[in-house]
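Checklist before submission:
- one chain only
- standard amino acids only
- sequence pasted in full

Submission:
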Amino acid sequence: MHPFQNMKIKTLFCLFLFSSALAIGQSRPNVIIVMADDMGWSDIGCYGSEIETPNLDRLAKKGLRFTQFYNTGRCCPTRASLLTGTYPHQAGIGHMMNDTGLPGYKGDLGSDVQTIAEVLKPAKYSTYLSGKWHVTPKIHPGSSQHNWPRQRGFDRFYGTIHGAGSFFDPNSLTRQNTLISPYADKEYEPEVFYYTDAINDHATRFINEHKGEDPFFLYIAHTAPHWPMHALPEDIEKYKGRYDAGWETIRAKRYQKQLDMGLIDPKWKLSNRDAEAWKDAKNKEWEIRLMEVYAAMVDRLDQGLGNVIAALEKRKMLDNTLVMFIADNGGCAEGMGRKEGIQYKDSDPDILRPMKASDLQMDMIPKRTRDGVVVKQGTEVMTGGDDTYHGYGRAWANVSNTPFREYKHWVHEGGISTPLVAHWPKGISPKLHGKFEHQPAHLIDLMATCVDLAKAEYPLEVKGQKIVPMQGVSLKPTFSGKNLNRKNPIYWEHEGNRAIRIGKWKLVAKGANGAWELYDLDADRSELNNLASVHEEHAKEMADKWEAWAIEAKAKPWPWNRKKSSVSKKKVFNLAPDANLPMGVSPMIAKKAFEVEVQIEKQGNGILVAQGGDAHGWGLSIENGISKFFVCLSGKVEAVTAKEKLGAKDSKISVKLNSSGKVELHAGKRMLGTGKFNSLVKEMPADGLQVGRDAGGTVGNYDNEFAFDGKIKRVKIKIN
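Returned file contents:
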């Protein structure tokens, strides 16, 4: 062969290799992160579900499925972690939007972290967000917008600043920096407004209207399938009868499908059913309807994602766009709207009180629909329409999290495991299409992945403010079948629930005072065989690592069992009708007996005073003249209910909780009822104290907020 010919062949071969490298993702891709809300690990077809998700299944078939990808176990912390590439406490949102006075629990996104949008913009990425924000408490007209999306790096934004709400009339709906009504929005006028559609439609619009040759970052943050169970009639009809067999049968079928597709190891047993047997279930027709609507919500999300994919295909962008689909926590066992009978959210349910089209909706649970119909809850109300408001409950959440234990809030696998479907034709090796990636990964890795692929520079300092370093590693090596270079463990903390993952080993505990459990996840990812007593030294080593991380990452000091506080010596609190105390200045009731006295000017229904959240706390309510005192003990609710109603002239309601857990309810000097709890509230509640409502995690078996519709004069709390 002539030397020149040989050189020519070598040159062509090198060019081929170069062009192949480009095809495998050397050019900078668009990045789209799609997140579902309150969706369990097994709720999409390619992870074992009977719910029809053809578009996600298509992405999985030509992409990569991660089997051990993790979130934080709760909505706000997950969003903070995803956006910043840090642990949520480092971003200031270790819990929800409540300020406990502690650095890791301020409830507002910190200035010492950067969002993915803020980091990618200097790399000439356009940045778009459609959907739920939920990393600031400042949601009302006139509130500070310093932590709204446009101020945190996003070029365009359409969505809700707050978290959950009606799908037909979402609260805090915003375009750019302006709060809007969906029924007075000249830029988007569908025949029927449905928030899931609106989110996907705006995501599609951002893709269609993207200009220039530079890439974009798009964050699509859905509220589906978070409660309320709202869906369109045609989608609900599609699932009619599909869940008639009940939760045990559906769960078993999902487990078998996961085994058949190779998603799970046969060594991982199906965890115990955490609900009553289907044969013993009350209100079967109602329970079936809840799951039909839930499935319809997931289905609709997938339909809209199909439109997003079609927009990418039309613009010939799909091949060089990394699409990642995840969920913010496991299935949700919260009992929203599940009380017996019918509960109306407003008085005079037969009278219509329509809203103006231009009126802003700022209530998470609207009292009425736009046309004035009262919103209803309870087991006699078939869910799905805009005048209903329910969650699907623990038993169906148990199905969602197949085959794992626990739920949203907790950091056992059922609370923190999310699907991750990654699709990027130019960047994921064809030999991996349709395959599983088994290496553990976490939300903190998404920032590192974006920085890596965008060839962006993660800042150490911005405007003189030191920035918290990225905590994760890039997932890019997995796209070519390589190992992640993860040097550090993966950590969790939420409401005192805590965990650490090192290789195959996971150490996990429920509550701030719960005992550590140790699991070999290679053999037992369902967390059924606790090995803490077998490997005591290893468990202690991991626990010590977790403690060191917790202090460094601001997960500690805790709001859950603080031993010191600026008000720890205060014994008496005299509170105004609208008192709203952060955790740091709330009564120190952990392991304490106390008394509560409420003076009312007008009787009504709702929360008189509440202190706490989903894990720990207490509350006093009135409903239909019956007073009730709740405590929440490590997520379990106990209640003492009055045996007789308030009299028409009763204006002083009080409760006494003594050191043995005995409770006395009074109206004036008249005893209304007694009872006994298994224990006092063992840990300091996270959500602070509110008079007249419970807007944080609910303490009792009532709906979020449960605002008192009478009139409170004052509240007195005495610590004994």
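Reviewer check: Residues 490-552 form a domain with the Arylsulfatase, C-terminal domain fold (CATH 3.30.1120.10).
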